[in-house]
Amino acid sequence: MESEQQMSKQLREFQEHLKKSKKIVALVGAGLSVSSGLPTFRGSQGLWKNFNMIDLATPDAFYIDPGLVWQFYSWRRVSALKARPNRGHLALSKLSNLSSNRDNGKKVDYITITQNVDGLSSRSNHCKDNLYEIHGSLFNLKCTSFMCNYVDRNNFKHPLTKALADTEDEYEKKNRKRTLEEIEQQDLSISPQFKPVVQLTESDLPQCPVCKDGSLLRPGVVWFGESLPLNVITKIDNFIESETPVDLVLVIGTSGTVYPANSYVDRIKLKGGKVAIFNTDIEEDILQGKVKDTWGFRGDAAELLPVALE
Ligand code: BV8
């Protein structure tokens, strides 16, 4: 257990460095949205604990059973729409706007790289110009036809089709009878159970409004085995590799499992940047301050960030 003194020493050092930093990156993962009621992917209550990502988050999965995949993403859309940005999202958005309102004389170059597709960062008044949703968004839809480049951004409609109306899971249904306050305090430890409702056919699913042959629309997320949007990757590479090195990378609520997101931290560290980790699960050595140029703050990112970034 890190002692109180150890924690406050780390916090003091971190905040001094934060104030001096001219170039900052935040790498965000599912842990930031836990306090908003959304499950992570790995770990005891994670999404991938209850079912296999290969059956739901790959192009093959969609080709084999688009109805199952659409029910999974429709259920995630409903969950994310019901969620609210938490104090951690808001603290990060405040930092993002610091760099854009240069009238305070403090020139800070800042970007948020989020792996999350839940849209909560963009709903928390985050500066639009420096938020990179590298895995896409649950609320973007795109045509599956190679000949068509139809994309529908920020589509918050639910249900997208009649057949997808009933994709709320048992957990949500149980909650429906509860008061809003009770839902706000809902027990986050219960992992939402996603149960495919029925076997759906292509005619039950969202169709491209542009294509004559009625191609299917798919969720505008990056599936495993798909490359990340090149324009976004290029901007991030330019930011990290440019002449002025990144002074500080905030690593928030991510297991660092997924490539290429997990490569950014080492690249920044290699160029002399310092690392601050905000996670419920942090190695003791880091908590003890024994890892060079790395601070660790253990806890809920929604609670830690407003204090650390103040
Ligand atoms: C690509 C969208 C190449 C979909 C997602 C073998 C070895 C290494 C790599 C690979 C391999 N085989 C394949 C690969 C590559 C693969 C990959 O990395 N696989 C992993 C699983 C090994 N990567 C890809 O396929 C990528 N593409 O490489 O393309 C290419 C190039 C050219 C042409 C073709 C291909 C694409 C990856 C994108 C996949 N899509 N999401 C969807 O969401 O449905 S990734 C998915 O994982 C989510 O986006 C999620 O955000 C992301 C990362 O997970 P985390 O956010 O870190 O979440 P996790 O649950 O893991 O961790 C949560 C953390 O929070 C934990 O540490 C926990 O302790 C902490 N926490 C919990 N509560 C809190 C908290 N922290 C703070 N506060 C709390 N309250």
List keywords for this structure.
alpha/beta; 6-stranded parallel sheet; binds ligand BV8; single chain; 310 residues
In short:
This protein has helices at about 5-20, 45-50, 55, 60-65, 65-80, 85-100, 170-175, 180-185, 230-240, 265-270, 285, 300-310, and strands at about 25-30, 110-115, 130-135, 135-145, 150, 215-220, 250, 275-280, 295-300.
List the helices and strands and how they pair.
Elements: H1 4-20, E1 23-28, H2 47-50, H3 53-56, H4 59-64, H5 66-82, H6 87-100, E2 109-114, E3 131-133, E4 136-143, E5 151-152, H7 170-176, H8 180-184, E6 217-221, H9 230-241, E7 248-252, H10 263-270, E8 274-279, H11 284-287, E9 294-298, H12 301-308
Parallel strand pairs: 1-2, 1-7, 2-3, 7-8, 8-9
Antiparallel strand pairs: 4-5, 4-6
Bound molecules: ligand BV8.
Ligand BV8 binds at residues 29-31, 34-35, 40-43, 46, 57, 115-117, 135, 221-227, 253-255, 257-259, 278-281, 300-301.
Strand order of the largest sheet: 3-2-1-7-8-9
Helix content: 25-40%
Small molecules held by this entry: ligand BV8
Order of helices and strands: HEHHHHHEEEEHHEHEHEHEH
Mean pLDDT: 87
Q: In what range is the share of β-strand residues? A: 5-15%
- Which secondary-structure class do the elements indicate? alpha/beta
Radius of gyration over all CA atoms, rounded:
20 Å
